Amino acid sequence: MRSTAEKTLVLTGTGSGPRPGAPACAAGARLGRYELLQELGHGAMGVVYRARDPMINREVALKAIPLALEFEGRELEDARRRFFREAEMAGRLNHPHIVTIHDAGEDSGIAYIAMELLRGLHLVDFTVPSHLLPPAIAIEIVARLAGALHYAHQNSVVHRDIKPANVMFDRPSGELKITDFGIARLTDAGRTRTGIVLGTPSFMSPEQLQGRPVTGASDLFSLAVTLYQLLTAQLPFRADSMPQLMLRIAQDSHPRLCTTRPGLPARLDEFLDRALAKDPADRFESGAAFAQALRDINTRAGS
User: What percentage of the chain carries pLDDT values higher than 90?
Assistant: First the structure.
């Protein structure tokens, strides 16, 4: 059973019905020019549909965010500008491991992003004890994700919400894609109004939880948490309350891998010591360095 911290968008099944402000998938339902075919999943900030673009007869994943319900007045205008600015930046990214964004728009107070429709499962499906990937494969997957983040960071785009639920993996084809670029910054806009931290706190870096500037180093911290969970089916930092969790992420060391899953390459703990460093300056300097360190571990383990 998934912990509360891991509850997120699930792109399989039909969901539990439309969220307030989101259109229902009734016959003929549309959002902008898109025909809504099926609800695929939902999260804190919106609903994802399988939809069809009638102009070119292409099916897409359409994420709908009811801005008019989340914001009002000047906050709504700021959120709208932020949404389209972030969608534009994310739409410029062109990388084999980053989901392709086709279009963005707004209809009756509901903002939407049209993305490629992906195959496979979220990586969260591979974080349960009965469904863990072989360590070498998990390590290579995370190395590839680090490379994708390196590309995004070089283009001045920080994801802000890296976690297994925001990565799709199709094991038969090997297709791997990071999703939801540009969405996390929009959720940040609601923090001052709601007084709570949005997102998935268990994967957040100390600086992100403390409201300090978020950089590429924060994404890499979250990616290291993702690696830990893929290898052990456990989160490195757990607590019964939000204040306790924030304290542990800010101060505590992660449990050693030898205590959670014996037999993993010994150098992984050394890697995680650096990747999960509390000070961003002590972490890997880039996604490329992060990826290379992981591939070195795989190479030595296989020799």
Answer: 65
CB 112 within 8 A of CB 106: yes
State how beta strands 58-66 and 46-53 pair. antiparallel
What pLDDT is recorded for position 207? 95
Q: State the Cα angle at 248 between 247 and 254, rounded to 5°.
A: 160
Amino acid at residue number 162: I
Considering the segment(s) 121-302 as one domain, its CATH architecture is Orthogonal Bundle (1.10)
Residue 153: CB atoms within 10 A of its CB come to: 19
Instruction: Name the catalytic one among 125, 161, 180, 279.
Output: 161
CATH number of this structure's domain 4-116, picked from the four choices 2.60.40.10, 3.30.200.20, 1.20.1440.120, 3.40.630.30: 3.30.200.20
**25 vs 185, higher pLDDT:** 25
Cα distance from N-terminal residue to C-terminal residue, the chain: 37
Which pLDDT band, with edges at 50, 70 and 90, does 199 fall under? low
User: The whole model's pTM is what?
Assistant: 0.85
Helix (H) or strand (E) holding 58: strand 58-66
Give the C-alpha separation, 33 to 188, whole Å: 28
Which strands sit side by side in the sheet containing 167-170, from one edge to the other? Answer: 121-122, 167-170, 175-178
Domain residue spans in the chain? 4-116, 121-302
Write the pLDDT tens digit of every residue in 239-279: 988 899 999 999 999 999 988 898 999 899 999 999 999 99
Active site residue 107: no
Is 63 in a helix, a strand, or coil?
A: strand
Q: What distance in Å separates the CA atoms of residue 115 and residue 201, rounded to the nearest whole number? A: 26
The helix (H) or strand (E) run that includes residue 188 is helix 184-188
Distance CA 42, CA 66 (A): 12
Is residue 205 exposed (0-12), middle (13-18) or buried (19+ Cβ within 10 Å)? buried
